[in-house]
Design a protein that fits this description.
Helices cover 27% and strands 26% of the residues. By secondary structure, it is α+β, with helices and mostly antiparallel strands. β6 and β7 form a beta hairpin. α3 packs antiparallel against α5. The structure holds flavin-adenine dinucleotide (FAD).
């Protein structure tokens, strides 16, 4: 990006949205790994997203979208161009007047965190988000990934998605059109930006029961997941007919380390940053694990986390 482009971008990004240059991505990822973003823009409203994307297209500047950074590995070389962190906040609960009507629609911003939304809707006695509540991402990132836990996925609660298409047109799609599958949505194939989402939840008014359930799921995570070390959740996807973490464990890889990256001793499905891991350490370890599982058990395992950044080898 040229100096002039940086100055022009500063004029486009208006408060409360912010822009920072050469910003370390370690601060914006749950892995606490990654090089610097040439320009990191935190977009707090739809207008900023539209303006920035329009400018980037005009000037041919690459765009990378992130949410809460809890499912990404940012390469050590950093990210060229603009990294757009979607921080659009909204929470609108449309309670029907008819008390017999159990279905309630909730409109949320793509930047709202699952945990905040889940506790807010619980205060209104709405069920549906409990299993998803402790996934540490934004609504946008969770839709992109069709995130899920404890037998529930985003596809079970989403009704409609408002997004910006590649021509910067604001469009709407239904849950069916989003082509949700296990850790997949149409957004992984398109250059769309998720802006706002309508969730469909149910009224049951047992507020305390809902909150207790969420607490149970959060406690269960603490017991089974290595949350004491920075990580990006499950490194690999589940297989069609196997549990990946179990295969990694069977291959004796728990605790295996390359540089600062380690296969968690608590949960073999997680690669953790033991302190000063580089993205290259994580990539080398992930490749090593994939190779060993294939050699010993004959199963191909696929990465779940998304790799973001500008590779030297492109
Ligand atoms: C401790 C831990 C536990 C986890 N447990 C689970 C779990 O149980 N289940 C599960 O499914 N995941 C889990 N994850 C992974 C992660 O939390 C989810 O995938 C989450 O939905 C990612 O959301 P995010 O906002 O952090 O997205 P990011 O990691 O920032 O981005 C993920 C992808 O989504 C894209 N994206 C983000 N926002 C938008 C947007 N608005 N528009 C278009 N594209 C966008 C990005 O480009 C990127 O490709 C866990 C992670 C951690 C660290």
């Amino acid at each position: 990006m040229t100096k002039t482009q940086k100055e022009e971008l500063k004029n486009i990004v208006k408060s409360p949205s912010t822009i920072l240059f050469n910003e370390s991505m370690k601060k914006y990822t749950s892995f606490k790994i990654g090089g610097t973003a040439e320009a990191l823009i935190k977009a707090c409203n739809i207008n900023t997203v539209e303006e920035v994307l329009k400018y980037a297209k005009e000037k041919n500047i690459p765009i990378t979208i992130i949410g809460n950074g809890s499912n990404i590995l940012v390469l050590d070389e950093g990210i060229e161009g603009i990294t757009l962190k979607i921080d659009i906040q909204k929470l609108e609960i449309n309670l029907p007047n008819n008390l017999q009507d159990k279905k309630v629609q909730v409109i949320v911003g793509a930047g709202n965190k699952l945990i905040e939304v889940s506790y807010k809707v619980a205060e209104h006695g709405l069920v549906g988000m409990e299993e998803l509540s402790s996934i540490p991402g934004t609504i946008g990132g969770a839709i992109y990934m069709n995130a899920g836990a404890y037998g529930k996925e985003m596809k079970n609660v989403v009704k409609e998605i408002i997004y910006l298409d590649e021509k910067q047109q604001i469009k709407k799609m239904t849950d069916k059109q989003a082509e949700f599958e296990y850790r997949h949505s149409i957004f992984q194939e398109k250059q769309y930006v998720i802006l706002e989402v309508t969730l469909q939840l149910e009224r049951n008014n047992k507020n305390e029961e809902i909150k207790n359930k969420m607490q149970e799921y959060a406690d269960s995570r603490k017991k089974t997941q290595p949350i004491e070390f920075p990580n990006a959740g499950s490194t690999f996807k589940r297989g069609k007919d196997f549990i990946t973490a179990k295969l990694i464990d069977e291959c004796g890889l728990k605790g295996y380390k390359i540089g600062g990256a380690q296969v968690s001793t608590k949960h073999a499905g997680f690669i953790v940053n033991t302190g000063n891991a580089t993205a290259q350490d994580v990539l080398d370890l992930a490749k090593y694990v994939q190779r060993k599982v294939y050699e010993k058990i004959g199963k191909k395992i696929e990465l779940e986390m998304k790799i973001i950044g500008t590779s030297k080898n492109k």
